């Protein structure tokens, strides 16, 4: 089982995983650093059925979250907060690339 922050920071790679499994067409969209014009990642266009499957799983996850007692939600979010703090530099580096911000501002 992967913790929520790991899923959060790896989300930009999920489309690549779908594509490599043969679920996506070859059309891709570049992600470009606006400061350097560097293409640092590209995303594949999803098929409608893949998108629908993701939407359905997201809805099911929301319903499961909704049924959790408040204490369990607090515990989960507290753990998420700790992991996000530990990965702040990784998140800031991604923000720097995506938005072209200086690293200090991204933090």
Give the SSE map.
Blueprint: H1 4-20, E1 28-32, E2 39-44, H2 48-67, H3 70-86, H4 88-99, H5 103-106
Antiparallel strand pairs: 1-2
Keywords:
2 strands, single chain, 107 residues, mainly alpha, 5 helices, flat, two-stranded antiparallel ribbon, Aldehyde Dehydrogenase, Chain A, domain 1
What can you tell me about this protein's structure?
The structure is a single chain. The protein is mainly α and 107 residues long. The chain has one domain: 3-Layer(aba) Sandwich (Aldehyde Dehydrogenase, Chain A, domain 1), CATH 3.40.605. The chain contains five helices and two strands, in the order αββαααα. It has helices spanning 4-20, 48-67, 70-86, 88-99, 103-106; strands spanning 28-32, 39-44. The protein has a two-stranded antiparallel sheet with strand order 1-2. Strand 1 and strand 2 (39-44) form a beta hairpin. It is flat and about 45 Å long. Residues 4-9 have low confidence and may be disordered.
CATH architecture: 3-Layer(aba) Sandwich
Helix content: 55-70%
What percentage of the residues does DSSP assign to strands (E)? 5-15%
Largest sheet: 2 strands, antiparallel
State the strand order across the main sheet: 1-2
CATH superfamily: Aldehyde Dehydrogenase, Chain A, domain 1
CATH hierarchy, class:
Alpha Beta
Overall strand count: 2
Helix and strand composition category:
mainly alpha
Q: Kindly report how far apart the N and C termini lie.
A: 28 Å
Mean pLDDT: 81
CATH T-level topology? Aldehyde Dehydrogenase, Chain A, domain 1
Note poorly predicted spans. Answer: 4-9
Shape: flat
The total of helices stands at 5
Total domain count:
1
* Cα Rg: 17 Å
Task: Please trace the helix and strand order, writing H or E for each element.
Answer: HEEHHHH
